[in-house]
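This week, look over our next protein:
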Amino acid sequence: MNETEQSENSRVFCLLMAGGDGKRLWPSSRRFYPKPLFSLQGRDSLLRGAVGLFSSLDFLSEITVLAGAPHEKALRSHLGPVKAHISTEPLSRNTAPAITLGVMSVLREFEEEDEDAIFVVSPSDHLIGNKKQLSHALKTAIAAAEKGLIITIGATPTRPETGYGYIEKGVDTDDGSGKVFKIKQFVEKPNLQTARKYVKDSFLWNCGIFVFKGRVMMEEMKKHAPKVFSSVRKALSKENSFGVTDAESYARSPNISIDCAVMEKTDLGAVIPASFGWNDVGSWESVYNLSEKDSSGNALSGDVVIQESENCLVRGDGRLVVVHGLKDVAIVSEQDALFVSDIKSSGEIKSVVDTLISEKRPEALRPFSSRHGWGSEETIEKGCGFSVKSVTVEKKMEYEPDPPAGRLIVLEGEATATLANKSVVLSEGDLLEIPEDVPLRVKNGGKSVLRLLEISFGTNE
């Protein structure tokens, strides 16, 4: 079967994984504002970019985002009107349980009884630069998955990289395409000398993209990781296909990756080499490499003035950043935190964030400013039991204050506020009292942006 001979009866679902602990791109990503919400210089967020990219492939069906419970509201808010289902895991248990949950949820939601239903699984926080080559690789993978193989796509390395895992491909699978190979081994992140050898020996970067029949993957999961399979099946809600009500059962699942649970054990695994401009955007050095630069090699974003400096990454968010006389440095400024590092060692930020978490620093949890599908919000002041936010709602968009208790003041524009199923129109200067535990939705009903001041009480984070 060639890449264009996909069965007319098979349906191809797409699962985008959108979890993470928000450490690798701190302070722009946080525990409750994970890396998929990060935006590269002048681009949309990684998550919206991934949803847009995979939605544009006409051979894919429904898009489902796999999210951890702590991130669900942020992801829904960030996606805004973008069409995508969200499947939520109550706690992070790594990719094997998450993918099992996603497959079971999708098949139940769409009452999919077709044994040929195929799944494309991909991270949502990576960058893919060549849509045509991605489409070509996925079609080849789908054709191989039709024959019962579990495919992972390996990116052809462009350089020795110590931050990625690698895949060593084996012999041809004899599927007839000459493009699908047995997996000889998965290897963890190497040192530089070993990475150079891997590139020379035609190893592939492990980019975390999988293609398989749902039935085949579930059979292999049950065979090689039975506790993952049974825990997720028991945890999945009978009433709500895209939610887990039995968190206790889900917590019994081993915390294990799909590579360790299935791919390193199954006889059905195969890899397809591909070159589609892949980057996992896993460090500030990666962000620097992907960014446009000035004549001195500096990658700048935000309100930045820089002199006598070379090869620096400088990102300012909401305040002026002035840099003078530096070289090979990453500077990331947020309203409540500033990160400065040699750009080559910026990947060590995870250990710093671990220290912040151990010291219970709020800066590890969420940023003071964040962007959403409906607009943006910025914390102006935060104290014991209160917070004050500046909120911008784009035209025709709406948002839900969190937590919905306190006061709302219209600074500019016109708002339609729905409080306990009763709507009221607010104009510039109007104030709305928000009772505790009463849900509120605010819609921009005007012809321009809506700017609000949100005062919340009872917030002690």
